[in-house]
Write a structure and sequence with these properties.
alpha/beta, 7 strands
Length: 240
């Protein structure tokens, strides 16, 4: 069963996800950092650090949202970062941040579908995505597109929520995600569905070894998984 934000809506997951993020775009950055107690910032730093040795010059940030991951990737001193997202509302927030930083010449944010990337094969030195793959309507198609556009030998880095397995974090996490996060999200974003969808989408996502198996099946090599903060999120890497 496909998890969608608006259960009584007949629109596709892709359309619903875009609409949801458009609706919460103005509050997204605040809620993201507030609800994670700022830990998401450390996760992004750790993820980008994995690309340092490869010295990528041309980077694609899939499901870029408001551009936080792309902005973090500036530490790699690339020539160009292109971020794509299906939510124009999120992209507008990101463009304002990037303009305020004076980084428009390096980071370009485009409206684009992760499952039909508007780029030729073997274009990017690295592909990154943070908290976006679980929102793909067709997970394997989106991952295959990422593989298509990266150069041979290029590295993919995926940061995504996962499900803690050990006591007591498993129980605490479940309680927070099911009962606390949706209430706070509703108060600040005024979109109850968005922060009900979040825990549901995490629960449905094939994390850990299951995700690595999908990457391997699609042709990715040297796949790795590192759990972060007691398993709340996971950091995946792979090579083309």
């Amino acid at each position: 069963m496909t998890v969608v934000p608006y259960k009584n809506d007949e629109a596709t997951k892709k359309v619903q996800v875009a609409r949801m993020f458009d609706a919460i775009s103005g509050k997204y950055d605040f809620l993201n950092h507030f609800l994670s107690l700022g830990i998401d910032i450390r996760w992004r730093k750790k993820a980008i650090a994995l690309l340092t040795s490869g010295n990528p010059k041309f980077i694609l940030d899939v499901a870029t949202g408001t551009g936080d991951f792309a902005i973090e990737a500036l530490k790699l001193h690339p020539e160009k970062i292109i971020g794509v997202d299906i939510s124009e509302g999120m992209l507008e927030v990101g463009r304002k941040k990037i303009k305020g930083m004076g980084q428009e010449s390096i980071i370009e944010l485009l409206t684009g579908d992760s499952e039909n990337l508007p780029f030729e094969e073997n274009k990017f030195d690295a592909v990154i995505v943070a908290f976006g793959v679980r929102n793909f309507e067709n997970l394997e198609k989106g991952l295959a597109e990422m593989l298509r556009v990266i150069k041979p030998g290029g590295r993919v880095v995926v940061l995504e929520f996962s499900k803690p397995r050990a006591f007591p974090m498993k129980q605490l996490y479940s309680f927070y995600f099911k009962f606390i996060l949706p209430k706070i999200g509703k108060i600040f974003s005024r979109d109850a569905s968005a922060y009900t969808y979040l825990p549901e989408s995490v629960q449905a996502f094939p994390d850990g070894e299951n995700f690595l198996s999908i990457l391997t099946k699609l042709g990715y090599k040297n796949t790795t998984c590192q759990t972060l903060t007691f398993g709340i999120s996971s950091l995946y890497t792979a090579i083309k």
